Amino acid sequence: MSRLHSENHLVERIGWLRAAVLGANDGIISTASLVLGVASAAASRNDILLTGVAGLVAGAMSMAAGEYVSVSSQSDTEHADLAREKRELADDPVFEREELARLYVARGVEADLAREVAQQLMAKDALAAHAREELGISEITTARPVQAALASAATFSVGAAAPLALVLVSPSSVLIPVVSAGSLLFLALLGAIGAKAGGAGLLKPTLRVTFWGAFAMALTAGIGAVFGKVV
């Protein structure tokens, strides 16, 4: 008999991984695009750096606030559903047990066994059983607003710092191509890391994030060049 062992499932990473990848991706793309747009308008290096730093701070705060509000709304919905389920369990536990059993029957479990399983699970933790089976809420998927907000703000800052570092080290004459190429390289690396952490193939996520990053930067640089000539 094989020894029992604990397993670490990739789905357990979905909460923080989504926020982290989104934050870093947004940090790189938005800051690089901002830098390229301002640089294309023939601004000085100091102006470019000032704009980039302001974008980093504003973007990090915006990501944190937006992620917190969004995930808090999900958390509020989960708590409301759990409160309703708790009332229903208190009012009619027999009906709730049959409801849980029917869920198992629908998945292919025999009726008598489904009722026995439902009874044993509800004897241990009725609310947890219904939350998991009826509402789809578990420890893995439950909303964590603070964790998501901090992850988004931190990873946005790290991502945004990468294009700013390129501005600092690149000569003014090649600032635009260096920031463009370097930022695309950072995006490709981010796509590969996110895919690896999530257990997905490397090619498709890497190409996807790099393509949309290149599109955003090219569009912003073009707008900066046009307004730089007009203004």
Automatic annotation (TrEMBL):
Signal peptide: none
GO biological process annotation, one example: intracellular manganese ion homeostasis
Keywords associated with the record: Membrane, Transmembrane, Transmembrane helix
Superkingdom of the organism of origin: Bacteria
Transmembrane segments: 21-42, 48-69, 148-168, 174-195, 207-228
Protein name from the UniProt record: VIT family protein
MF annotations from Gene Ontology: manganese ion transmembrane transporter activity
PANTHER family listed in its UniProt record: FE(2+)/MN(2+) TRANSPORTER PCL1
Cellular compartment(s): Endomembrane system
Entry-linked InterPro entries: Ccc1_fam
Membrane topology term: Multi-pass membrane protein
Any one cellular-component term (Gene Ontology): endomembrane system
Organism this protein belongs to: Bradyrhizobium sediminis
